[in-house]
Amino acid sequence: MTQNSQPHLTRGFGLLQATALNMSNVVGVGPFITIPLMMATMGGPQAMLGWILGAVLAICDGQVWSELGAAWPGSGGSYRYLREAYGPARWGRLMAFLFIWQFVLSGPLEIASGLIGFSHYASYLWPGMTPLGQKLLAASVGAVALLLYRRITFLGKVTVTLWAGTVLTMGSILVLGLPHFEPKRAFSFPPGAFDFSKGFFLSRWAWAARSRANTA
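^ thats the sequence. predicted structure below, dont judge the formating
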């Protein structure tokens, strides 16, 4: 390296790796955990309303990010955008710092939710697994995070591999579920399906409380 040359990071993430990373972050384990709960809470196919609205919101979010990326090209993502939007001298530095700092709290929670979902689904393969066994399994899988301490090129390969597994899992669910599709069940809305009450917005327990009140 000459005296006038500037150090630079290896561009180890291309379009494929970046797409795989974003798709993996969007899917995660959430849908596999929340879909049964939401179906049980809503009591009908109107539960899909949340995913439809979420898709519309995701499209709007993607358009905003594309505009920001075109206006301020470079590395940093939200860190850079916050610095530029609020001014790099004072408030921008604070907002960017807070954005990075909140990952100290949100990051472990996101990883923990994925590990909990993994251990819950593992209980279907091993029905006799105890709660302690589920916790130990989740902690063991969490050790995979040690793979992050590798070169960026290696992480790109890991990201694409995990993304391929996610797509394969979702595709398998669609293919295996298609022969069992029942239009009557999918499009049969129960009475009060779109009654925007507390049970609609809150939780399964609120819905159950309302049902008990109606039958009393």
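The two ends are 80 Å apart (CA to CA).
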